[in-house]
Amino acid sequence: MTNKLQIRRALLLLTCLGAAFAGLGYRLVDLQVFHHEDLLKRAERKTERTIPQQAKRGDILDVNGNLLATSVPVKTVWVNPALLAGQNLLPAPQALFARVLAPLLQVDETKLCQQMMPRLRQGSLGGMLTNQYAVLKRQVPETTWLQIRGSLKALPSLVDTRQWKKSDRVALTNLCLSAIGADAEQMRIYPNASLAAQVVGFVSSHDSTNGDSELVGCDGIEKTFDKKLSGVDGWRVTEVDRLQHEVASHRDEDVLARDGLNVVLTVDAAVQHILETALVEAAQAHTPKSITGIVMRPRTGEILAMATLPSYDPNRPNTITPETRNRVVTDVVEPGIVSEADPPQRSILSWRTR
């Protein structure tokens, strides 16, 4: 009887182990064979990132190589509201982060705190989702972003964590480094302000197809040679860890951006300054609605200077109006016809250069 009982127990144990291994084998086959493609895509969505590499917009220079327009790298600082709302370490993380970032971003602390608050929206499957991206400020200098990173690293020191577990301290440090991020962008700078503004033109910022901000020429040389100046963006396909840091050894693609071409004009900045000064003096003397001047080299047709008043400063978009257009290329004027009954409404200045 004892032997039969032991045999039954052994058979029962073998049956249970066999059933367990059979279930485990079925589960492995189900995951690795039947659901392989779906799980692979889900894993790639969590770990694979396509990082755009923005091309630098080309410079615009005068005939002597003086800069009339150039681009400088800046940052767009953003926050992940879902990450702040989902943590259980701090009672009011938005207020703490806003207190640290407001002086550096030069933004009102209350407004910054509101931007960090989560916003709920309905997903495609009917569930409620929290936004994971909110812009805090655009065109932040890189030096300011480095200061922000330093402040975020030191932020845990503002919290009393003496009674915390080591894992909670590590989680707080990771939260400070991953909740706030920045995207690389560029800002258009016009070093000479309004000098040759209507010739050079200006740009505006538009959202591209990949969600990033790109510069688009809206007038003058900026618009005429927009494609040449813009260049071609690159990209990098890579994997990231749980802190969104790149794993360089798993990088799949790395296509470098091709910077935009520079445009060299026949305009001479010195002659342009002389012309604009003369136009200002003539406008003060005769008070016309507008005044235009062109300096041209007759033998070659090269334009050394071109200006119209009123003008604008392309660094300040609020100064651009329809009245500040380049009337040399937009308006039609009948030359040499002035009514004797009416006083002249415009003054036309010209110089001949050899």
Provide a count of the helices. 12
Distance from N terminus to C terminus (CA atoms, Å) equals: 125 Å
Estimated structural class = alpha+beta
Strand runs, count: 16
Low-confidence region ranges:
337-354
Q: How would you summarize what this structure contains?
A:
With 354 residues, the chain is α+β, with helices and mostly antiparallel strands. The chain has helices at 2-34, 36-47, 81-86, 93-105, 109-115, 142-154, 166-178, 197-200, 220-224, 226-230, 269-286, 327-330; strands spanning 48-53, 60-61, 67-79, 120-122, 128-130, 134-141, 180-189, 203-207, 213-217, 234-240, 246-247, 253-255, 263-264, 291-297, 302-309, 348-352.
Characterize the structure shown.
- With 354 residues, the chain is α+β, with helices and mostly antiparallel strands.
- Among the domains are: 2-34; 75-183, no CATH class; 269-352, no CATH class.
- Helix content is 38%, strand content 25%.
- It contains twelve helices and 16 strands.
- It has helices at residues 2-34, 36-47, 81-86, 93-105, 109-115, 142-154, 166-178, 197-200, 220-224, 226-230, 269-286, 327-330; strands spanning 48-53, 60-61, 67-79, 120-122, 128-130, 134-141, 180-189, 203-207, 213-217, 234-240, 246-247, 253-255, 263-264, 291-297, 302-309, 348-352.
- The strands form five sheets. Strands 2, 3, 6, 7 and 13 form a five-stranded mixed β-sheet that branches. Strands 1, 10, 11 and 12 form a four-stranded antiparallel β-sheet that branches. Strands 15-14-16 form a three-stranded mixed β-sheet.
- The relative contact order is 0.14.
- Residues 337-354 have low confidence and may be disordered.
